[in-house]
Design a protein that fits this description.
It comes from Streptococcus mitis. By secondary structure, the protein is α+β, with helices and mostly antiparallel strands. The protein is built from 2 helices and 4 strands. The termini are far apart.
């Protein structure tokens, strides 16, 4: 175990996809409130080493029907994080069985920063998406699968 109490390492982060569409008919793009947000995590374990994995995190603001619903924009960003459990144990659990909530939390902080930066650079109100309860998010995702 590391000195700080976790063997989970984030080896890299990248934006895999970004879709941004603005509703120019929206009255006040400088004052965006009540953001509809969707978060979909997709963990994938390495075939060669269960201590390594890739987490896709798709964060969507509003949806593709943003114009019809009179929403200010549609933004979808998909981030990919590469994670490793540095405490190698061939008989142990895979990296996401052990650390999925932690991995989502780490990657979500990148999503929040990207969304705030992008919306500000695009000339509209900087959108600060809220923090989320990751355990509740995972419960909700599991209930949707059932």
């Amino acid at each position: 175990m590391s000195t700080y109490g976790s063997d989970l390492q984030l080896r890299g982060v990248r934006v895999e996809r970004l879709i941004y569409r603005i509703n120019n008919d929206f009255e006040d793009l400088d004052n965006i409130e009540n953001v509809d947000i969707s978060i979909i995590p997709t963990p994938k374990i390495s075939r060669e080493n269960k201590d390594c994995g890739l987490l896709e995190l798709e964060v969507t603001l509003f949806d593709e029907d943003y114009r019809e619903k009179k929403n200010p924009l549609y933004l979808k960003i998909k981030l990919v994080g590469i994670f490793e459990d540095t405490n190698y144990n061939p008989e142990g659990e895979d990296v996401f069985v052990k650390y999925l909530p932690n991995a989502i939390s780490m990657l979500y902080s990148y999503a929040r920063a990207h969304i705030a930066s992008l919306t500000g650079m695009f000339g509209i109100d900087v959108i600060q998406i809220p923090t989320v309860n990751i355990l509740k998010l995972l419960d909700d995702v599991n209930h949707e699968k059932d």
